[in-house]
Automatic annotation (TrEMBL):
UniProt keywords, alphabetically: ATP-binding, Cell membrane, Membrane, Nucleotide-binding, Transmembrane, Transmembrane helix, Transport
PROSITE patterns according to UniProt: ABC_TM1F (PS50929), ABC_TRANSPORTER_1 (PS00211), ABC_TRANSPORTER_2 (PS50893)
Record-annotated ABC transporter domain positions: 366-600
Organism listed in the record: Candidatus Scatomonas pullistercoris
Subcellular location: Cell membrane
Keyword Magnesium attributed: no
Gene3D superfamilies, per database record: ABC transporter type 1, transmembrane domain, P-loop containing nucleotide triphosphate hydrolases
All residue ranges annotated as the ABC transmembrane type-1 domain in the record: 40-332
InterPro entries listed in its UniProt record: AAA+_ATPase (IPR003593), ABC1_TM_dom (IPR011527), ABC1_TM_sf (IPR036640), ABC_transporter-like_ATP-bd (IPR003439), ABC_transporter-like_CS (IPR017871), P-loop_NTPase (IPR027417), Type_1_exporter (IPR039421)
Membrane topology qualifier: Multi-pass membrane protein
Stated name of the protein: ABC transporter ATP-binding protein
Pfam families, per database record: ABC_membrane, ABC_tran
């Protein structure tokens, strides 16, 4: 779906507060607890596969010892090489590695399924969350930022989970298992190998302390870049019209540069970890090799044990290096999860009363009772608004920009709640309804059209999904949209592209009006509904609207005063209050602010 609205002026957000790595990991763990059975299976398979791998070098060392002893005996003339015995040992090792591979395959399959389920459910939770978050959340943020959480952050988290959890389990198991196998071979050589651990831990700790902020910054600026690209692309005509290409490029370059810097630094720390750890591991390898050679000369251990120990010490440094690498993945995953869970934990609209008033059978009487409201508590824009609207009346709301006209509609549909006072429908406070039931009573046609990528038929049917094709066409005729629809290449089956640029702005408005006609709601809200149509079409639309509004309570927000002359009541708003009210003729006769505004639109310029 595509939102047919641009929101210029949204720059990068202020820097986020420092995040808690441990808290983020705990949230991931709690979220994944729903998969505990599969996680347990994955854990068993990962440990079992690693254990079979660990045992292999020790048994393989016996083959080396057998071969060495056979060669010595042959040289001394006291025996020969027992190839049968060596073959049995090698076959045993092969079986162990095959079993290990099977466990690893199952473990990888299970973990892939878990990570995909996590990303699927996170996207589902985000999608459901969007419908429960108050409107003010989206009015303060660019669309691309929310989009980034659904796409980039969830993808990063999925990749991190898939790669880090199993690798962490196998690395820890390998580290512990190899440690005990090394102890079983020789204690002194094991202690020599452990010398590298403090250095490794210091390196890991230092890198983690520096890299976390860069991984978090990388996710943050990625969201900003996505938001800017989405907004600039959606509003490219406005950008070009005001010659703001260079400014837009500079703003994008700033965010892109910050993304580059944080991405470069995070990848630098990620890349430097492995070679440093390999260097530390090689130092330990050299020390063990010298000690092992000394012990063989003294015949304290077998040659095969030396070979096994060399394999184990290489395996011992490998999980340390892997754990170091995993920390970078965990940093990235934690940064992404913080943003995802931050969104999921945003305050929601209240669920509604425990015993809501049913919306069926309501007539459409609306009362505003001393309503006061401000988007910020210290900036009240509607101070004391009271008005009674009877069923079936057409109420026009006019006034200068910022007077509170659209705000009244937002309050009526409970996109926002009043600070004080009450709005009632048929005597019931709208807070006594469930929001979803309340909004079923309203049909809306906005100045900002909203159509999605689909056929014209589907876009009109969005007003009432169970409508037949004939009902859709009847609504299109009533909105005077049928003629231009039939002129399209495939009529009602014409597919609107993603940005709906294959029809004009006026035609989009006609389709949204047809959608409202099809919905057949008790209360109508028309916010500059004819602002994008020509004068001739406006007359036709007005005729259709007059038929549509018969018997329905209608609120009409308009700047073109010619469209509201037949309204039952006109409210002229100024600074959040009703400055004048009455019919068109009464207000003109009064000669006040409404009359001045009306005359300014229709006065003739004399030359």
């Amino acid at each position: 779906m595509s939102q047919q609205r641009t929101r210029p002026g949204h720059g990068p957000r202020a820097a986020e507060k420092p995040k808690d790595f441990k808290k983020a990991i705990r949230k991931i763990a709690v979220y994944m607890s729903r998969y505990k059975c599969r996680l347990l299976l994955m854990l068993v398979c990962a440990i079992a596969g690693t254990v079979f791998t660990i045992v292999g070098p020790r048994i393989l060392g016996k083959a080396t010892t057998e071969l060495f002893n056979g060669l010595v005996a042959r040289v001394q003339g006291t025996g020969s090489i027992d190839f049968g015995r060596i073959g049995q040992i090698l076959l045993t090792v092969l079986c162990l590695y095959l079993v290990s591979a099977c466990f690893s395959f199952v473990q990888g399959l299970v973990m892939t399924g878990i990570s995909n389920d996590v990303s699927y459910n996170l996207r589902k939770d985000i999608s459901e969350k969007i419908s429960r978050i108050p409107m003010k959340y989206f009015e303060k943020r660019p669309y691309g930022e929310v989009l980034s959480r659904v796409t980039n952050d969830v993808d990063t988290l999925q990749m991190g989970l898939n790669q880090s959890i199993t690798q962490l389990i196998t690395s820890v198991t390998l580290l512990i298992g190899v440690f005990f196998m090394m102890l079983s071979i020789n204690v002194w050589m094991t202690l020599c190998a452990l010398v590298i651990l403090p250095a490794a831990m210091v390196i890991i700790g230092k890198v983690m302390s520096h890299s976390q902020k860069f991984f978090r910054g990388q996710q943050k600026y990625l969201g900003e870049v996505n938001g800017q690209v989405e907004e600039i692309y959606a509003g490219h005509q406005v950008v070009k019209a005001f010659n703001r290409e260079e400014a837009a490029i500079r703003e994008f370059e700033r965010s892109n540069r910050m993304l580059y810097e944080t991405g470069w630094k995070s990848q630098f720390f990620s890349g430097i970890m492995m070679p440093v750890m390999q260097f530390v591991g090689n130092l330990g390898y050299v020390m063990v090799a010298l000690l092992g050679g000394f012990l063989v000369i003294r015949r304290s251990i077998e040659v095969g044990d030396i070979q096994s120990f060399f394999q184990y010490i290489r395996s011992f440094t490998q999980p340390i290096q892997q754990i170091a690498q995993i920390t970078n993945l965990l940093q990235s995953s934690a940064a992404a999860s913080e943003r995802v869970f931050e969104f999921l934990e945003e305050p929601e609209e209240d669920a509604g009363p425990e015993h809501p008033v049913p919306a069926e059978g309501l007539a459409g009487n609306v009362e505003f009772d001393h309503v006061a409201f401000g988007y910020n508590p210290d900036q009240i824009i509607i101070r004391d608004f009271s008005e009674r609207v009877r069923e079936g009346q057409k109420i026009a709301i006019v006034g200068p920009t910022g007077a509170g006209k659209t705000t009244m509609v937002k309050l009526l549909m409970r996109f926002y709640d009043v600070n004080s006072g009450a709005i009632r429908v048929d005597g019931h406070d709208i807070r006594e309804f469930r929001r979803s039931e309340l909004r079923k009573m309203f049909g809306m046609v906005l100045q900002d059209t909203w159509l999605f990528n689909g056929t014209i038929l589907e876009n009109i049917r969005y007003g009432r999904l169970d409508a037949t094709d004939e009902e859709v066409m009847a609504a299109a005729r009533a909105a005077h949209a049928h003629k231009f629809i039939m002129q399209q290449p495939e009529g009602y089956q014409t597919v609107l592209n993603e940005e709906t640029t294959n029809i004009s702005q006026g035609q989009k408005q006609l389709l949204t009006i047809a959608r409202a006609i099809l919905a057949d709601n008790r209360i109508l809200i028309l916010d500059e509904a004819t602002s994008s149509v020509d004068t001739r079409t406006e007359v036709l639309i007005q005729q259709a609207m007059d038929r549509l509004m018969q018997g329905r309570t209608s609120f009409i927000i308009a700047h073109r005063l010619s469209t509201i002359r037949n309204a039952d009541m006109i409210l002229y708003m100024k600074d959040g209050d009703v400055a004048e009210q009455g019919t068109h003729e009464e207000l003109l006769a009064r000669g006040g602010a409404y009359a001045a505004l009306y005359n300014s639109q229709f006065e003739r310029v004399t030359v």
